[in-house]
Amino acid sequence: MAPTTQSLMHFSRIEVNQISNSFLDFEALSKAQLEDNELQSFQNDEKSSLVFKRVPSPVSATELICDTSTGSPRPFVPHNFRRTIFEHFHNLAHPGVAASFQLIASRYVWPNMRKTVKDWVQNCIACQRSKVHRHTKTPLGTFALPDARFSHIHVDLIGPLPSSEGKSFA
């Protein structure tokens, strides 16, 4: 038998272990789903494109309430599990906002996920330390000297600010 054929035969015998979600307690997640008011209002929202169904858990005997509109079940995540899920996926390689959102949204669902993930990624200390962002600053402008005092007036405006007496700029 040729050496390359023998090598290829070894690859065909390799067993692949299933990736587990051991970081997440599915029984506790299922129990939290039943007590979650946010899920109840989310399920009753007729404007939502999400389709919620009870799906058997892959690793326990419980059922999870999942969105099945994408073709693969995505469990609804109650508030107290969201940070754990985010940290699990984000801490793998500290991807940016879009990649972190994509990793999580392909597996789980919760309201305002994009905003939540964006806030958490932008506040990640490890990302702030290691990622260099371009800080472009425009140079200060130069002004021609006026012919006489107060013949030209320059004004700096800032805003919009919180409204005060109907005004929102200073």
TrEMBL record:
<feature type="domain" description="Integrase zinc-binding">
    <location>
        <begin position="77"/>
        <end position="132"/>
    </location>
</feature>
<dbReference type="InterPro" id="IPR041588">
    <property type="entry name" value="Integrase_H2C2"/>
</dbReference>
<protein>
    <submittedName>
        <fullName>Transposon Ty3-G Gag-Pol polyprotein</fullName>
    </submittedName>
</protein>
<dbReference type="Pfam" id="PF17921">
    <property type="entry name" value="Integrase_H2C2"/>
</dbReference>
<dbReference type="InterPro" id="IPR052160">
    <property type="entry name" value="Gypsy_RT_Integrase-like"/>
</dbReference>
